[in-house]
Amino acid sequence: MNRTTINFILSSTKLIMKRLLLFLPFLLGALSISAQYDIVELQYPVKAVKAGAVGPDGYYLLAYHKEKRTEDNVIRRYYTPELVHVNFNMEVQWRKRFPVAMFHSLTSIQVDDNSIYLGGTDHNTGNEKSNGWVVCIDQSGNKKWEKRFSYPNYHTVEGREVILTPDGDLLFTGHAYRNFNSYGSPVIYRLNKYGDVVWKSLYGTKYTLPHFNHGTFTQDGNLIFGGHVYPDNQSLRVSNTPRAWVAKINLATGALMWDRYHKISSKSFLYAFSEAENGKLLGIGHANDDILVTKLSAIGELQDSETTGTCDKSHLRFIYKNPQTGISYAVGECIDERSNPKHLETVLAIFDQNLKEIDRLTIDAN
Fold this sequence. Notes:
Strand content: over 45%
Distance between the termini: 27 Å
Structural class: mainly beta
Largest sheet: 4 strands, antiparallel
Strand order of the largest sheet: 1-2-3-4
Oligomer: single chain
Order of helices and strands: HEEEEEEEEEEEEEEHEEEEEEEEEE
Number of helices: 2
Shape: globular
Helix content: under 10%
């Protein structure tokens, strides 16, 4: 990795961040009042930008929630998801809202040559229930199909992520809950391009509070997930000591091939993975409030780990491997909570083909 390439990555990232900042006044625009559902606007109508992607035409897609509440109930909030398509100058090309009586949440975007896939949760099923929610739209924002997903004998499914598989299907991930107050278990649905379920499977039921984060496809055509669990022990759960968790899943059937958990510190979380040619794994996340980088064998055994932190809270959450060069780029945040206002930096860690860290850069996000 030469300095020219690193400078290009930094300049590109800064440019995107500047454009997003220019876009904030639009995101903070006023909401119109909806008399149909007796909903009024909030002072801060935008809850958060939840997901982003590059569209088929190279322009940006941003998903965010507009927050509403009823006049007589300030506790219950309502979110209207909106997808906005903007060009390189942050000029809106089109926007698509998903108006609902209560609220949906939109947390993931995936794009192929013909369609845009949105994943999240439909909270409109009544009796405090929710279903996983996937919508497919065309490049102009017109809906092609919409599906909702539940799981047998489970009260609620909250959707998390839509992932495009190497062979052209979709994976929809989330968490299933037996009742309103229960602990959830990770669930994955494999869908065809029309949203029909090919298989669905539940994971981590032998643990307390199992949680999946992001999935990575392996060279053998299967799937690695990172997350955290509490081993099924009351004292561990009460003392709040999550352990880093990694699981491998058969992409063809949904069967769990193996899973491992590792106590790296008192609180350990894994978010995403990159795979070397020899099958070894690089796992990123955070341990307590420090960045966590782990090296694992091809079957998830812990071989090495390192924690580093230069601010109050730091983590790595996403990783991308360039298939041509084998270089992996991990992105996260470094937050100094003692400053006023809080100081935020974007962290970029770069790893070579053998998963060795070769550089770490920070970008001031304030």
